[in-house]
Amino acid sequence: MAARLLNGQAIADQIRAEVRPAIDAFTARAGRPPGLGIVLVGDDPASAIYVRLKLKSAGENGLRADLERLPASASLAELVSVVDRLNRSDAHDGILVQSPLPDAMGPDAERRVFDAIAAEKDVDGFHPTSVGRLVQNRPTIAAGTPSGVIELLERSGIGIASQRAVVIGRSDIVGKPMALLLLHRNATVTICHSRTTDLAVVARQADILVSAIGRPGFVTADFVKPGATVIDVGTTHVTDRATVERLYIAGSVRRETFNRRGSLVVGDVHPEVVDVAGALTPVPGGVGPLTVVMLLKNTLRAAELRLENRGR
Ligand code: NAP
Prior knowledge:
By secondary structure, the chain is α/β, with parallel strands linked by helices. It has two domains: 30-118, 3-Layer(aba) Sandwich (Rossmann fold), CATH 3.40.50; 144-289, 3-Layer(aba) Sandwich (Rossmann fold), CATH 3.40.50.720. The protein has helices at 8-30, 45-60, 76-88, 109-116, 128-135, 144-155, 175-184, 199-203, 241-247, 253-261, 288-311, and strands at 4-5, 35-41, 64-70, 94-97, 164-168, 188-192, 208-211, 229-232, 236-238, 264-266, 279-280.
């Protein structure tokens, strides 16, 4: 039997409908909307799309959202000075610096920029203070994508406690926080990465398998225990025909879309997994919409905490 497809868009819409009245209530109470400053450096097309989506979603849902653009040639010091300005701004409760940053900024640029964001405005959950609080399972703002996965699981009625969870990928922004969020909900968690041996064997033990690596179709049917829940976080913009032909049969909707557009957004999970998994997130339309809506939630939370702290 084919896996149940978990509709991330519908769940994101549900969360948005819940958050909107709280945003309006904040605006009435504070005399201003929750404010988000987004910083985009350079011209990476995928980043530009993500930023546009985030700005649109923020604007449509009652947030103030401002975009700060810097050229790809900007220095790290220039970027940090924009962040500093947003740190001092009364109108901004949240700051998001879109990654990846241009390579020319240096290998540790992202870390240094995330460190520079005021912890109270860290709506991405990347600041060491937020990460430390997450590790200790204290209240905090956690990274949007893994938090969105938890919402998706819980609202789809998929139990986490006592389940075996395997997370493929150990990045600071997806894999590690994902593993911690599952652990804090009492899953038994294994993290895999590029040096894991017998990855398929480890993955096949999972009741909940999360893949966040960015390799199109990497997770094949032999990685999946029959009936498992498979969460595909990977999103790769594929432009080469060979990859598309390896993954999708001639005449399929995905192949036709590629023929029309010349590119396709592809997840880590091979299409054949639909015949083995019990539940599966599609790409697109699975985890992506949750990431966008969690930013609204996190910005509102940061705004409320700032308002409360000011009242003390
Ligand atoms: P990243 O920083 O590049 O990390 C990738 C991780 O995958 C690393 O831990 C790496 O292992 C592991 N990996 C790479 N190749 C592997 C292989 N062959 N076998 C096992 N592990 C392998 O990426 P990221 O920022 O976490 O993002 C991961 C994916 O999620 C990307 O496709 C990204 O576009 C997507 N994403 C989607 C959303 C969304 O909203 N849907 C949000 C964020 C990210 P090592 O540590 O050993 O190198």
